[in-house]
Amino acid sequence: MPLVEINKITIGRNRRALKDEKIAELMESIRANGLLNPITIDQDFNLIAGLHRLTASRLLGLTEIECRVITCENTDDSRLAEIDENLIRSELDALERSELWLERDQILERMGLRAKPGDNQYLHQNLQLGGGEMISPPAKTTLELAKEAGYTERTFQQGKQIAKNIVPEVKETIRGTPIAKSTTALLKVARAGSQERQQAEQAEQAARTQSEPEEIAQQARLAAEARAKQRELQLVALHQTTAEREAKRAVKTIQRRVQQPSADKPQPAAHLFNVQVGDEWLLDRHLVYCGNTNHPAFIHRLPSNAALAIATPPLTWNHDYLIDEARVVAVVCSENSIYSFCSRQQMPFRYEWLIGNLYVAIFSRHAIAKPTQALNIEGIEAIVAYLISLYTKPNHFVIAPTIGQGEVLLACEKMARICFAGEESPERTAQAIERWQQWTGKQASR
After folding, report:
1. What angle, rounded to 10 degrees, do the helices at 194-209 and 213-259 form?
2. Does this model's pTM top 0.90?
3. Of 141, 143, 241, whose CA–CA distance to 189 is shortest?
4. Which residue, 92, 169, 226, 299, could crosslink 97 as a Cys pair with Cβ 3.0–4.6 Å?
Protein backbone atom coordinates (compact mmCIF):
# COMPACT_ATOMS: atom_id res chain seq x y z
CA MET A 1 0.00 0.00 0.00
CA PRO A 2 1.37 3.46 -0.91
CA LEU A 3 2.17 6.09 1.70
CA VAL A 4 0.40 9.43 1.14
CA GLU A 5 1.03 12.78 2.79
CA ILE A 6 -1.76 13.39 5.28
CA ASN A 7 -2.06 17.07 4.35
CA LYS A 8 -2.96 16.11 0.76
CA ILE A 9 -6.07 14.16 1.81
CA THR A 10 -9.40 15.99 1.46
CA ILE A 11 -12.29 15.26 3.84
CA GLY A 12 -15.83 15.69 2.50
CA ARG A 13 -18.28 18.04 4.22
CA ASN A 14 -20.96 15.38 4.71
CA ARG A 15 -18.80 13.29 7.01
CA ARG A 16 -20.20 11.76 10.19
CA ALA A 17 -19.27 13.34 13.51
CA LEU A 18 -16.11 12.04 15.12
CA LYS A 19 -16.22 10.03 18.34
CA ASP A 20 -13.53 11.10 20.78
CA GLU A 21 -13.36 7.76 22.58
CA LYS A 22 -12.81 5.92 19.29
CA ILE A 23 -10.02 8.30 18.30
CA ALA A 24 -8.34 7.78 21.69
CA GLU A 25 -8.48 3.98 21.28
CA LEU A 26 -7.02 4.21 17.77
CA MET A 27 -4.21 6.48 18.93
CA GLU A 28 -3.18 3.88 21.52
CA SER A 29 -3.36 1.11 18.93
CA ILE A 30 -1.39 3.01 16.28
CA ARG A 31 1.23 4.05 18.83
CA ALA A 32 1.69 0.43 19.90
CA ASN A 33 1.23 -1.51 16.67
CA GLY A 34 1.15 0.96 13.79
CA LEU A 35 -1.82 1.37 11.43
CA LEU A 36 -3.23 -2.14 11.01
CA ASN A 37 -5.95 -1.19 8.52
CA PRO A 38 -5.08 1.38 5.81
CA ILE A 39 -7.52 4.16 5.02
CA THR A 40 -9.18 4.38 1.59
CA ILE A 41 -8.92 7.36 -0.78
CA ASP A 42 -9.72 7.96 -4.43
CA GLN A 43 -7.29 8.99 -7.14
CA ASP A 44 -7.85 12.67 -6.27
CA PHE A 45 -6.95 12.15 -2.59
CA ASN A 46 -10.57 12.38 -1.41
CA LEU A 47 -11.13 10.33 1.73
CA ILE A 48 -13.45 7.36 1.19
CA ALA A 49 -13.09 5.52 4.50
CA GLY A 50 -11.04 5.94 7.68
CA LEU A 51 -11.70 9.39 9.14
CA HIS A 52 -11.09 8.21 12.71
CA ARG A 53 -7.85 6.48 11.66
CA LEU A 54 -6.75 9.57 9.74
CA THR A 55 -7.54 11.89 12.65
CA ALA A 56 -5.75 9.65 15.15
CA SER A 57 -2.66 9.53 12.92
CA ARG A 58 -2.67 13.31 12.53
CA LEU A 59 -2.97 13.83 16.30
CA LEU A 60 0.01 11.51 16.80
CA GLY A 61 2.06 13.84 14.63
CA LEU A 62 2.38 11.52 11.64
CA THR A 63 2.87 13.19 8.27
CA GLU A 64 2.18 10.16 6.05
CA ILE A 65 -0.38 7.40 6.18
CA GLU A 66 -0.82 4.10 4.36
CA CYS A 67 -3.71 4.22 1.88
CA ARG A 68 -5.70 1.96 -0.37
CA VAL A 69 -6.35 3.90 -3.56
CA ILE A 70 -9.47 3.33 -5.67
CA THR A 71 -10.27 5.06 -8.94
CA CYS A 72 -13.67 6.65 -9.25
CA GLU A 73 -15.13 8.00 -12.50
CA ASN A 74 -16.79 11.00 -10.85
CA THR A 75 -17.87 12.47 -7.52
CA ASP A 76 -20.99 10.27 -7.43
CA ASP A 77 -18.85 7.15 -7.76
CA SER A 78 -16.61 8.44 -4.99
CA ARG A 79 -19.54 9.16 -2.71
CA LEU A 80 -21.09 5.74 -3.40
CA ALA A 81 -17.88 4.05 -2.38
CA GLU A 82 -17.77 6.15 0.78
CA ILE A 83 -21.39 5.32 1.64
CA ASP A 84 -20.84 1.59 1.11
CA GLU A 85 -17.78 1.67 3.36
CA ASN A 86 -19.84 3.35 6.09
CA LEU A 87 -22.77 0.98 5.72
CA ILE A 88 -20.50 -2.05 5.94
CA ARG A 89 -17.89 -0.99 8.46
CA SER A 90 -19.28 1.77 10.68
CA GLU A 91 -21.38 1.63 13.82
CA LEU A 92 -24.31 3.72 12.64
CA ASP A 93 -27.33 4.87 14.59
CA ALA A 94 -30.77 4.62 12.99
CA LEU A 95 -30.77 8.22 11.73
CA GLU A 96 -27.31 8.00 10.13
CA ARG A 97 -28.12 4.67 8.49
CA SER A 98 -31.43 5.98 7.14
CA GLU A 99 -29.78 9.02 5.61
CA LEU A 100 -27.14 6.88 3.89
CA TRP A 101 -29.80 4.52 2.50
CA LEU A 102 -31.73 7.43 1.02
CA GLU A 103 -28.65 9.19 -0.34
CA ARG A 104 -27.40 6.00 -1.99
CA ASP A 105 -30.72 5.48 -3.76
CA GLN A 106 -30.76 9.12 -4.90
CA ILE A 107 -27.26 8.81 -6.36
CA LEU A 108 -28.16 5.61 -8.20
CA GLU A 109 -31.25 7.28 -9.64
CA ARG A 110 -29.27 10.37 -10.65
CA MET A 111 -26.73 8.15 -12.42
CA GLY A 112 -29.47 6.21 -14.18
CA LEU A 113 -28.51 3.09 -12.23
CA ARG A 114 -31.60 2.61 -10.10
CA ALA A 115 -31.14 -1.16 -10.01
CA LYS A 116 -33.81 -3.57 -8.86
CA PRO A 117 -33.34 -6.99 -7.27
CA GLY A 118 -32.56 -9.49 -10.02
CA ASP A 119 -30.95 -7.01 -12.42
CA ASN A 120 -27.54 -8.13 -13.66
CA GLN A 121 -26.48 -5.24 -15.91
CA TYR A 122 -24.90 -3.43 -12.98
CA LEU A 123 -22.60 -6.19 -11.80
CA HIS A 124 -19.41 -5.08 -10.12
CA GLN A 125 -16.31 -5.09 -12.35
CA ASN A 126 -12.79 -5.14 -10.96
CA LEU A 127 -11.02 -3.19 -13.67
CA GLN A 128 -7.50 -1.89 -13.19
CA LEU A 129 -6.82 1.71 -14.03
CA GLY A 130 -3.81 3.77 -13.03
CA GLY A 131 -2.70 1.32 -10.41
CA GLY A 132 -5.95 1.52 -8.47
CA GLU A 133 -9.19 -0.40 -8.32
CA MET A 134 -11.84 0.84 -10.74
CA ILE A 135 -15.20 1.35 -9.04
CA SER A 136 -18.02 0.65 -11.47
CA PRO A 137 -21.76 0.90 -10.70
CA PRO A 138 -22.61 -0.91 -7.46
CA ALA A 139 -23.28 -4.59 -7.70
CA LYS A 140 -26.22 -4.52 -5.31
CA THR A 141 -29.27 -2.40 -4.72
CA THR A 142 -29.50 -0.49 -1.46
CA LEU A 143 -32.26 -2.86 -0.35
CA GLU A 144 -30.06 -5.89 -0.99
CA LEU A 145 -27.25 -4.32 1.03
CA ALA A 146 -29.69 -3.59 3.85
CA LYS A 147 -30.94 -7.18 3.89
CA GLU A 148 -27.39 -8.54 3.93
CA ALA A 149 -26.73 -6.40 7.01
CA GLY A 150 -29.73 -7.97 8.74
CA TYR A 151 -32.40 -5.34 8.10
CA THR A 152 -35.83 -6.19 6.76
CA GLU A 153 -37.44 -4.53 3.77
CA ARG A 154 -39.90 -2.87 6.16
CA THR A 155 -37.06 -1.39 8.20
CA PHE A 156 -35.41 -0.21 4.99
CA GLN A 157 -38.57 1.55 3.79
CA GLN A 158 -39.08 3.10 7.21
CA GLY A 159 -35.50 4.31 7.16
CA LYS A 160 -35.98 6.12 3.86
CA GLN A 161 -39.17 7.65 5.24
CA ILE A 162 -37.24 8.94 8.25
CA ALA A 163 -34.44 10.40 6.12
CA LYS A 164 -36.80 12.00 3.61
CA ASN A 165 -39.52 13.40 5.86
CA ILE A 166 -37.73 14.78 8.92
CA VAL A 167 -36.76 18.37 8.15
CA PRO A 168 -33.03 19.23 8.36
CA GLU A 169 -33.32 21.51 11.40
CA VAL A 170 -35.07 18.78 13.39
CA LYS A 171 -32.46 16.22 12.31
CA GLU A 172 -29.73 18.43 13.74
CA THR A 173 -31.63 18.61 17.03
CA ILE A 174 -31.91 14.80 17.10
CA ARG A 175 -28.25 13.99 16.33
CA GLY A 176 -26.31 12.65 19.28
CA THR A 177 -29.44 12.00 21.36
CA PRO A 178 -30.99 8.62 22.26
CA ILE A 179 -33.78 9.35 19.77
CA ALA A 180 -31.27 9.05 16.90
CA LYS A 181 -30.81 5.37 17.78
CA SER A 182 -34.52 4.42 17.80
CA THR A 183 -36.32 3.75 14.53
CA THR A 184 -39.67 3.75 16.37
CA ALA A 185 -39.03 7.18 17.90
CA LEU A 186 -37.73 8.61 14.63
CA LEU A 187 -40.84 7.42 12.79
CA LYS A 188 -43.05 9.31 15.25
CA VAL A 189 -41.16 12.48 14.41
CA ALA A 190 -41.09 11.79 10.66
CA ARG A 191 -44.86 11.28 10.53
CA ALA A 192 -45.64 14.49 12.39
CA GLY A 193 -46.71 17.31 10.07
CA SER A 194 -47.32 14.94 7.14
CA GLN A 195 -50.24 17.03 5.90
CA GLU A 196 -48.11 20.19 5.99
CA ARG A 197 -45.31 18.37 4.15
CA GLN A 198 -47.73 17.38 1.38
CA GLN A 199 -48.99 20.97 1.16
CA ALA A 200 -45.43 22.25 0.87
CA GLU A 201 -44.56 19.74 -1.85
CA GLN A 202 -47.69 20.65 -3.82
CA ALA A 203 -46.88 24.37 -3.56
CA GLU A 204 -43.27 23.78 -4.60
CA GLN A 205 -44.43 21.74 -7.59
CA ALA A 206 -46.93 24.44 -8.54
CA ALA A 207 -44.21 27.10 -8.36
CA ARG A 208 -42.09 25.14 -10.85
CA THR A 209 -44.92 25.07 -13.37
CA GLN A 210 -45.81 28.77 -13.14
CA SER A 211 -44.45 31.51 -15.35
CA GLU A 212 -45.92 34.57 -13.65
CA PRO A 213 -43.58 36.03 -11.00
CA GLU A 214 -46.48 36.90 -8.67
CA GLU A 215 -47.86 33.37 -8.78
CA ILE A 216 -44.40 31.88 -8.24
CA ALA A 217 -43.91 34.13 -5.21
CA GLN A 218 -47.34 33.18 -3.86
CA GLN A 219 -46.64 29.45 -4.13
CA ALA A 220 -43.20 29.93 -2.58
CA ARG A 221 -44.81 31.73 0.37
CA LEU A 222 -47.35 28.92 0.83
CA ALA A 223 -44.57 26.34 0.71
CA ALA A 224 -42.49 28.23 3.27
CA GLU A 225 -45.45 28.51 5.65
CA ALA A 226 -46.21 24.81 5.33
CA ARG A 227 -42.57 23.86 5.91
CA ALA A 228 -42.44 26.08 8.99
CA LYS A 229 -45.55 24.42 10.39
CA GLN A 230 -44.15 20.97 9.60
CA ARG A 231 -40.95 21.85 11.45
CA GLU A 232 -42.95 23.11 14.44
CA LEU A 233 -45.05 19.94 14.63
CA GLN A 234 -41.99 17.72 14.33
CA LEU A 235 -40.25 19.58 17.15
CA VAL A 236 -43.35 19.08 19.29
CA ALA A 237 -43.39 15.36 18.40
CA LEU A 238 -39.67 15.11 19.22
CA HIS A 239 -40.20 16.76 22.59
CA GLN A 240 -43.08 14.44 23.42
CA THR A 241 -41.22 11.32 22.26
CA THR A 242 -38.21 12.28 24.36
CA ALA A 243 -40.43 12.88 27.37
CA GLU A 244 -42.08 9.47 26.96
CA ARG A 245 -38.73 7.69 26.82
CA GLU A 246 -37.41 9.58 29.84
CA ALA A 247 -40.59 8.80 31.79
CA LYS A 248 -40.31 5.07 31.12
CA ARG A 249 -36.66 5.05 32.10
CA ALA A 250 -37.35 7.01 35.30
CA VAL A 251 -40.18 4.69 36.37
CA LYS A 252 -38.07 1.57 35.78
CA THR A 253 -35.24 3.01 37.85
CA ILE A 254 -37.53 4.03 40.69
CA GLN A 255 -39.31 0.70 40.82
CA ARG A 256 -36.10 -1.30 40.62
CA ARG A 257 -34.38 0.61 43.41
CA VAL A 258 -37.43 0.61 45.68
CA GLN A 259 -37.77 -3.16 45.28
CA GLN A 260 -34.03 -3.81 45.54
CA PRO A 261 -32.29 -1.04 47.49
CA SER A 262 -28.76 -0.37 46.33
CA ALA A 263 -26.20 -2.30 48.35
CA ASP A 264 -23.67 0.53 48.12
CA LYS A 265 -25.97 3.05 49.82
CA PRO A 266 -26.60 2.92 53.58
CA GLN A 267 -30.28 2.56 54.29
CA PRO A 268 -31.61 4.92 56.97
CA ALA A 269 -33.51 3.39 59.82
CA ALA A 270 -37.27 3.42 59.34
CA HIS A 271 -39.81 5.09 61.61
CA LEU A 272 -37.28 7.26 63.41
CA PHE A 273 -39.44 10.34 62.80
CA ASN A 274 -42.88 11.27 64.02
CA VAL A 275 -44.68 13.47 61.49
CA GLN A 276 -47.20 15.94 62.89
CA VAL A 277 -49.47 18.52 61.26
CA GLY A 278 -47.53 21.73 60.73
CA ASP A 279 -44.19 19.98 60.26
CA GLU A 280 -41.83 20.90 57.45
CA TRP A 281 -39.33 18.29 56.31
CA LEU A 282 -36.22 18.77 54.22
CA LEU A 283 -35.38 15.87 51.94
CA ASP A 284 -32.08 17.04 50.50
CA ARG A 285 -33.27 19.70 48.03
CA HIS A 286 -36.98 18.93 48.44
CA LEU A 287 -39.50 20.34 50.92
CA VAL A 288 -42.42 18.33 52.33
CA TYR A 289 -45.10 20.11 54.37
CA CYS A 290 -47.65 18.27 56.51
CA GLY A 291 -50.90 20.19 56.65
CA ASN A 292 -53.60 21.84 54.58
CA THR A 293 -52.01 22.74 51.24
CA ASN A 294 -54.58 25.51 50.77
CA HIS A 295 -53.25 27.22 53.91
CA PRO A 296 -50.89 30.23 53.68
CA ALA A 297 -48.33 28.24 55.68
CA PHE A 298 -47.83 26.05 52.58
CA ILE A 299 -48.51 28.62 49.86
CA HIS A 300 -46.03 31.15 51.29
CA ARG A 301 -43.26 28.55 51.05
CA LEU A 302 -43.76 27.90 47.34
CA PRO A 303 -41.16 29.30 44.92
CA SER A 304 -43.76 31.23 42.81
CA ASN A 305 -41.79 30.42 39.64
CA ALA A 306 -42.39 26.70 39.46
CA ALA A 307 -42.46 25.12 36.04
CA LEU A 308 -45.17 22.61 36.91
CA ALA A 309 -47.75 21.67 39.51
CA ILE A 310 -49.22 18.15 39.51
CA ALA A 311 -52.36 17.51 41.52
CA THR A 312 -55.08 14.94 42.03
CA PRO A 313 -58.27 16.76 43.03
CA PRO A 314 -59.61 16.07 46.54
CA LEU A 315 -63.31 16.15 47.31
CA THR A 316 -62.99 19.88 48.01
CA TRP A 317 -60.77 21.78 45.56
CA ASN A 318 -59.35 25.07 46.81
CA HIS A 319 -56.18 25.08 44.78
CA ASP A 320 -56.81 27.54 41.96
CA TYR A 321 -53.92 29.51 43.43
CA LEU A 322 -51.58 27.02 41.71
CA ILE A 323 -52.02 28.84 38.39
CA ASP A 324 -50.18 31.82 39.95
CA GLU A 325 -47.39 29.63 41.33
CA ALA A 326 -46.62 27.38 38.31
CA ARG A 327 -46.46 27.91 34.57
CA VAL A 328 -48.38 24.69 33.92
CA VAL A 329 -50.89 22.98 36.22
CA ALA A 330 -51.67 19.34 35.46
CA VAL A 331 -54.63 17.71 37.21
CA VAL A 332 -54.88 13.91 37.02
CA CYS A 333 -58.46 12.61 37.27
CA SER A 334 -60.50 9.52 36.67
CA GLU A 335 -62.89 9.47 33.73
CA ASN A 336 -65.88 10.04 36.00
CA SER A 337 -64.54 13.21 37.60
CA ILE A 338 -62.62 15.08 34.90
CA TYR A 339 -65.59 16.93 33.40
CA SER A 340 -67.14 18.00 36.69
CA PHE A 341 -63.74 19.17 37.92
CA CYS A 342 -62.99 21.26 34.84
CA SER A 343 -66.42 22.90 34.98
CA ARG A 344 -66.17 24.15 38.58
CA GLN A 345 -62.68 25.64 38.81
CA GLN A 346 -61.45 29.01 37.52
CA MET A 347 -58.00 28.20 36.10
CA PRO A 348 -57.50 28.84 32.35
CA PHE A 349 -58.12 25.47 30.68
CA ARG A 350 -55.91 24.46 27.73
CA TYR A 351 -56.72 20.84 26.92
CA GLU A 352 -57.18 17.38 28.34
CA TRP A 353 -56.14 14.02 27.04
CA LEU A 354 -56.36 10.38 28.00
CA ILE A 355 -53.20 8.62 29.16
CA GLY A 356 -53.73 4.96 29.95
CA ASN A 357 -56.95 4.91 31.96
CA LEU A 358 -56.53 8.37 33.48
CA TYR A 359 -57.41 11.83 32.21
CA VAL A 360 -55.02 14.74 32.49
CA ALA A 361 -56.33 18.31 32.35
CA ILE A 362 -53.77 21.01 31.53
CA PHE A 363 -54.18 24.61 32.70
CA SER A 364 -51.92 27.55 31.95
CA ARG A 365 -51.92 31.27 31.31
CA HIS A 366 -49.60 30.55 28.39
CA ALA A 367 -50.17 28.89 25.02
CA ILE A 368 -49.33 25.19 25.43
CA ALA A 369 -48.97 22.82 22.49
CA LYS A 370 -51.32 19.86 22.82
CA PRO A 371 -49.70 16.43 22.46
CA THR A 372 -50.31 15.11 18.96
CA GLN A 373 -49.56 11.43 19.40
CA ALA A 374 -50.80 8.54 21.48
CA LEU A 375 -48.69 7.63 24.49
CA ASN A 376 -47.60 4.12 25.33
CA ILE A 377 -47.43 4.56 29.10
CA GLU A 378 -49.63 3.41 31.96
CA GLY A 379 -49.92 4.07 35.66
CA ILE A 380 -49.71 7.17 37.80
CA GLU A 381 -45.91 6.93 38.22
CA ALA A 382 -45.37 6.90 34.45
CA ILE A 383 -47.83 9.76 33.91
CA VAL A 384 -46.12 11.86 36.58
CA ALA A 385 -42.67 11.21 35.11
CA TYR A 386 -43.96 12.04 31.61
CA LEU A 387 -45.47 15.36 32.74
CA ILE A 388 -42.26 16.31 34.53
CA SER A 389 -40.16 15.46 31.49
CA LEU A 390 -42.54 17.25 29.11
CA TYR A 391 -42.94 20.53 30.97
CA THR A 392 -39.76 20.93 33.03
CA LYS A 393 -35.99 20.77 32.84
CA PRO A 394 -33.39 19.77 35.44
CA ASN A 395 -33.39 22.02 38.53
CA HIS A 396 -36.89 23.35 37.80
CA PHE A 397 -39.39 23.52 40.66
CA VAL A 398 -42.36 21.13 40.73
CA ILE A 399 -45.29 21.54 43.15
CA ALA A 400 -47.29 18.57 44.47
CA PRO A 401 -50.17 19.72 46.73
CA THR A 402 -51.07 16.07 47.36
CA ILE A 403 -48.28 13.62 48.09
CA GLY A 404 -50.00 10.30 47.31
CA GLN A 405 -47.42 7.54 47.48
CA GLY A 406 -44.60 9.99 46.82
CA GLU A 407 -44.76 9.59 43.02
CA VAL A 408 -43.95 13.23 42.26
CA LEU A 409 -41.28 13.36 44.96
CA LEU A 410 -39.43 10.29 43.70
CA ALA A 411 -39.73 11.32 40.05
CA CYS A 412 -38.26 14.73 40.89
CA GLU A 413 -35.42 13.04 42.77
CA LYS A 414 -34.66 10.74 39.84
CA MET A 415 -35.00 13.46 37.19
CA ALA A 416 -33.05 16.19 39.05
CA ARG A 417 -36.01 18.48 39.72
CA ILE A 418 -36.86 20.17 43.03
CA CYS A 419 -40.15 19.17 44.65
CA PHE A 420 -42.37 21.22 46.97
CA ALA A 421 -44.90 18.71 48.26
CA GLY A 422 -47.70 18.88 50.80
CA GLU A 423 -50.08 16.45 52.47
CA GLU A 424 -52.69 16.78 55.21
CA SER A 425 -52.30 13.22 56.48
CA PRO A 426 -49.30 12.68 58.79
CA GLU A 427 -49.40 8.96 58.00
CA ARG A 428 -49.18 9.43 54.22
CA THR A 429 -46.53 12.10 54.69
CA ALA A 430 -44.43 9.72 56.78
CA GLN A 431 -44.87 6.92 54.24
CA ALA A 432 -43.74 9.14 51.36
CA ILE A 433 -40.71 10.39 53.30
CA GLU A 434 -39.77 6.83 54.23
CA ARG A 435 -40.07 5.76 50.61
CA TRP A 436 -37.76 8.62 49.57
CA GLN A 437 -35.25 7.62 52.26
CA GLN A 438 -35.32 4.01 51.09
CA TRP A 439 -34.79 5.03 47.48
CA THR A 440 -31.98 7.55 48.07
CA GLY A 441 -30.26 6.16 51.15
CA LYS A 442 -30.41 9.69 52.61
CA GLN A 443 -31.95 10.92 55.84
CA ALA A 444 -34.80 13.45 55.97
CA SER A 445 -34.71 16.16 58.63
CA ARG A 446 -37.44 18.25 60.26
Report:
1. 160
2. no
3. 241
4. 92
